[in-house]
Amino acid sequence: QQQQQQQQQQQQSAPYMDGADEGGFKFAALPLKGRLGIVNAVMRSKSHFTAVCFAPLLLPPADLERGSRAAADDYIGDLGCLTARMCPTLLVHGTHCVITTEL
Q1: What's the CA gap between 53 and 51, in Å, rounded?
Q2: What is the pTM of this model?
Q3: What are 36-61's pLDDT values in tens digits?
Q4: What is the full DSSP assignment across 13-27?
């Protein structure tokens, strides 16, 4: 029964993977807020006993540099979607992408 539940969970999450499923759906095709919501849900599901979560800082939009108030509000809203209901989260921007599960 536990195996069946795991298989059902994998089947339900399959459309959100980078590769297309049989219907041609891709994670990258979702709107940004949808992708951020999924990433947030995954981070929350894996951080029940986490004291602090490190996550990549989203790149700010180009409009932000030109002083666009709407772009700034959207950017802060996106960061809010990414970190909603999370444990303390440190958003980090580096010179290149690094993904690790160990320190």
Answers
A1: 7
A2: 0.66
A3: 999 999 999 999 899 999 888 888 88
A4: HGGGSSS--TT---G
